[in-house]
Design goal:
transit peptide, transmembrane, membrane, nucleic acid binding, 356 residues, MTERF_sf
Length: 356
Amino acid sequence: MPNMKSAVRYWRIFEKCRFPPLAYDSILLPSLSALLPVAFWWSHRFLDCRLITTRSFVQSKKGFPSYGSNYESSPKPEESLTNTPIEEVNATDVDHLKLEEDTSAYVNLGFSPAQMTQLFNLQLDAPFQSKLTAISELLLLGLSITTILKVLEKKPELLRMPPKHLKERADLLRRLGLDAESLTQVALHFPSIFTVPHKRIKSLEKLLKEKCLFTMAQISKILQTSPQLLLEELNDVEYKFQFAYFRMGLKHGQIVQSGFFQASMAEINKRINFLERLGRYQTPDKKGQTQIINPKLKSIIKTSEQDFVTKVACSSMEEYKVFKKLLADEEEQRRQQEEAMEEFSDSENDDGTGSE
């Protein structure tokens, strides 16, 4: 059976010469058509030759197009690579991947799902990396995630602060003695502690230390209990200290412990004047002594207006309202006199009489 032997020999040859099935042409050998129709797949990309049968034979088989039409209609390898359409990436998929990355970063910082939801609901207008850096610095200061979220609700611009500013602020607050517990209290009531200019904190520290002669421990306590001083004019802060030290005869320790800097200067002045006119308060002498027992400083400063009038001054609200009206008229008259004196002084200088 010579035909059978030939078929086996051809079969073994083609078995050794298989090619990757990236493209295909149908190869049917005429000598094997009666015994074994064989289909081989081969790649035009890796093989620069063609195994073909006679055009008449290929065209005679149903379901197999002619070689010429098949080859001419099929794109070349280079065209296949360049003309293949690239699948467009859906924008929602990109957003989803980005959200997963953001979520993973916050999970690494210790955020719970509920806390991440709260953070995302704040709609903070800041780049992701900026937010991550700011939150990391606040965590290094010892603030809890709950505290940080409350601070960001009041001060969202904190997330736009440069990393260098946050690190310098953290170092300064540590040097001033604000530990994690005290800093938490300050941050909740005065989140501007992180955003006020660095120079402003240094200037207040210098004033309290060099002009008011407070110790560093006392300065730390003042910043913890009265951080709003950072927003006040330095001259007003100095005048408030002088009023407490010279007018009321208070020592440095008493000023710090009583929370004197927490109250406004106008309110303190009204209450002290009211008590003096009622004979219930007396300025201590140089030795710190008085002829009457003064009310405790905290009861004067920290009580509500109702309790101060009825319990400390032992008076009525009507009397206190009349007093405040008289005091306001006196201050207005004093202000007008000072302005008149300034105008008179300026007119003398313009006439040249002031230089004689």
